[in-house]
Design goal:
The protein has 12 helices and 2 strands, in the order αααβαααααααααβ. By secondary structure, the chain is an all-alpha fold. It has one domain (83-89, 98-406). Mean pLDDT is 75; it is low at 5-10 and 95-101.
């Protein structure tokens, strides 16, 4: 019996025994690393393990589809631009509540005011001429005619001066800082905000560059409207700072410096001119004999004040703003001429008040004469003060339209 060579083998696995044959190793196939072979994909399959989820009705974009998409993008861009232009309105807000009807309403107001003033002046001129011809002697008639002629020529001179000045000045395109800030807050429109900011800055740089403080003629004109040589020197220093491109890190700082350092000095000069003409209107209308002189003198002061304010800012208002300003000049003149009725009522009230006061304190001698005199003076002072208030409001409104920069 032949012995099995593996029977005498050591129980330990892997220890060879003498006379034993080495077992044959079974060769296993080598596995390829994953990804080394290109997988075979079925039509429509992806390497993610499942077919793509594509709608059955999907198809490549046609030319008509591309055209409609491009049109929708253009409409959205135009809408964004319209919103931006609304926030950055170039013209000052004149009648914001009226919207699209701002200019037609302003034109109607101008025509109505001019018509009312014309009818009032016509009736007053007829009354004054009839009074001069029928009541006054000859030596009073001719000086009266000359005075009326000079007053009418003064009004025409002020109006013509304003018109010639308006023809030479640039229109004010007011910068609204609040609109720029709102535009910067919108991520989608930041590129537009940056472009509008640079455009506004360039426009203001051109404004300060051509402001007439370098030529003797321009400086002389500014001195006549209240801009002193010291103020002009300060404006020149601020202008040099604003025209230095490396001085300010952001456009916001530049705008604030322009508003606080340059425009504020113009505002101070404009406020002084408003007070100057308002005080003159108060004095003249307080001592004027009738409503015709009140209306004509108020018209003259209104046109003269607007001309001075345009010279201070070296700008003119837009079309709608100009219409509203002229309408308010005519309306103020009409009110000033018709304050005689209010003046008589105020005179009666003052007369009664002073008469009662004299009786209370025990003054009886000539109390009626004194009370009537004080009543007359009080009524004239009230009329003059009301005309001062009206002209001051007109001047402040004009400044709001002529300022290059506003926070609104």
């Amino acid at each position: 019996m032949t012995a099995d060579p593996w029977d005498d083998a050591d129980d330990r696995i892997g220890v060879p025994v003498a006379g034993s044959a080495r077992p044959k190793l079974v060769e296993t196939p080598r596995r390829e690393p994953p990804g080394s072979q290109e997988p075979e994909l079925r039509p429509g399959d992806t390497d993610l393990g499942r077919p793509p989820q594509v709608p059955a009705s999907a198809a490549p974009l046609t030319d008509d589809d591309r055209r409609r998409l491009r049109q929708a993008e253009e409409e959205q861009a135009l809408q964004d631009l319209a919103e931006a232009e609304e926030m950055l309105a170039s013209d000052p807000a004149v009648m914001g509540w009226a919207g699209w009807f701002a200019h037609p309403l302003a034109a109607a107001f101008l025509i109505g005011s001019a018509g009312a003033l014309g009818l009032f002046l016509y009736s007053q001129v007829l009354n004054v001429l009839n009074s001069l011809q029928s009541v006054q002697p000859a030596w009073v008639q001719y000086p009266g005619y000359a005075a009326l002629g000079l007053l009418a020529l003064a009004v025409l001179y002020a109006m013509t001066r304003l018109l010639f000045l308006y023809a030479r000045l640039r229109r004010n395109r007011q910068l609204r800082l609040r609109g720029l800030e709102e535009l910067h807050a919108r991520t989608r429109l930041r590129w537009l905000a940056h472009a509008k900011t640079q455009e506004a800055k360039a426009r203001l740089e051109e404004y300060v560059r051509i402001y007439p403080i370098d030529t003797p003629k321009g400086l002389k004109t500014l001195v006549r409207v209240g801009v002193t040589p010291q103020t002009a020197e300060e404006l020149s220093k601020v202008r040099d700072e604003l025209l230095d491109p490396a001085r300010y890190a952001s456009a916001g700082e530049w705008f604030e410096r322009f508003r606080d350092g340059f425009q504020s000095k113009l505002d101070a000069a404009a406020d002084a001119r408003i007070k100057y003409w308002a005080n003159r209107a108060m004095l003249v209308t307080a001592v004027s004999p009738n409503g015709l002189v009140d209306g004509l003198s108020t018209s003259y002061f209104g046109f003269a004040m607007l001309a001075d304010l345009c010279r201070v800012y070296n700008l003119k208002a837009g079309r709608t703003g100009t219409t509203v300003l002229l309408a308010r000049v005519f309306f103020n003149a009409y009110l000033a001429g018709n304050l005689n009725d209010l003046e008589k009522l105020a005179e009666d009230q003052y007369d009664h008040l002073f008469e009662q006061g004299f009786h209370v304190v025990g003054v009886g001698v000539s109390s009626n004469v004194v009370s009537k005199f004080l009543g007359k003076v009080g009524a004239k002072a009230t009329t003059g003060y009301l005309n001062r208030v009206l002209l001051g409001r007109l001047g402040r409104y004009a400044c709001r339209l002529l300022r290059p920069v506003t926070r609104e």
